[in-house]
Amino acid sequence: MASAAAQKKTARHHTTETQWRHSEFVPPPAHKPRRGSRRASLPDVAAQATTGVDSIPAISFAQADGASSLPSGTDFNPIRLPEDEALFAPAADRRGEWKWSLLSGLMLAVLLAQGAFLFRQSLSMRYPVLRPYFVELCRQFECIMPLPREAEQLKLEFSELNFVPGHSNLIQMTATLRNLAQYEQDLPLLELTLTDDNKRVIAKRVFKPAEYLAPGEKQRTSLLPADELHAFLQLDQGEAQATDFSLFWFYN
């Protein structure tokens, strides 16, 4: 009896499962609105699901790409951005810009020329090749173009003080001065100081180039770059007895 009861229970379960499987494929009844109702009828979803893929309308790409998808007679007003206005704006007339560029270039050239003429001395020291041009300009415009005077660029190479034989009151001084600058310089002044054994100053005097230049260099008017000059002096010290001396080269 237990076996018969188990078989009966199994058969009942099988029957229920079969009925459920058949019932899930049964489409729901179509909705029919009642007479006089204003509510729209719902689409038959089950009918559309069982119709198949072939019933889906195809999308036309020609309509998506072209403007023919718009209804005839419809006004098309695109949105214009500021960037679009600048892109489609007419090109500006630049025919007169070269005149302003030329005028600006001329004004800049005049300003540079004035600055160069104002600082002609410094420029000629930094670029010695420019000095002849500045000299020529000053000759035409009646300006001065003096030689540089940089005493720091002068170096005393040699100096000596001796008594003239047979003349106890005469002394002679010889010296060599070199220009270390890379540009031409004016001739400096020479200050000679005589001292005794006690380092007391017994005589001092300033000499001009025409006075201290050696006999072979009396026509010299300047000191060329890396050039040297020779000084020669003969002095009568009288009763003074100078035993030492010092030289000082300078500009006014």
Index terms:
3-stranded antiparallel beta sheet; alpha+beta; single chain; 8 helices; Coagulation Factor XIII, Chain A, domain 1; 252 residues
Brief summary:
The chain is α+β, with helices and mostly antiparallel strands. It has helices at residues 2-23, 45-51, 61-65, 82-88, 97-118, 120-126, 131-141, 209-212, and strands at residues 154-164, 167-179, 185-186, 189-195, 201-207, 222-223, 228-236, 244-250.
Strands of the largest sheet, in order across it? 1-2-7
**Biggest sheet overview:** 3 strands, antiparallel
- State the low-pLDDT regions, or none: 20-25, 61-68
Strand content: 15-25%
Structural class: alpha+beta
- CATH architectural label of the domain at 151-250: Distorted Sandwich
Number of helices: 8
What best-fitting shape do the alpha-carbon axes yield? rod-shaped
* Helical amount: 25-40%
Number of strands: 8
Distance between the termini: 148 Å
CATH superfamily of the domain at 151-250: abc- transporter (atp binding component) like domain
Q: What's the order of the H and E elements?
A: HHHHHHHEEEEEHEEE
Write down the overall mean pLDDT.
77
Task: Indicate the CATH topology of the domain at 151-250.
Answer: Coagulation Factor XIII, Chain A, domain 1
Structural commentary:
There is one protein chain. The strands form three sheets. Strands 1-2-7 form a three-stranded antiparallel sheet, with no helix packed on it. The chain is built from eight helices and eight strands. Residues 20-25 and 61-68 have low confidence and may be disordered. The longest helix is centred in the first third of the chain and has 22 residues, at 2-23. The termini are far apart. It is α+β, with helices and mostly antiparallel strands and 252 residues long.
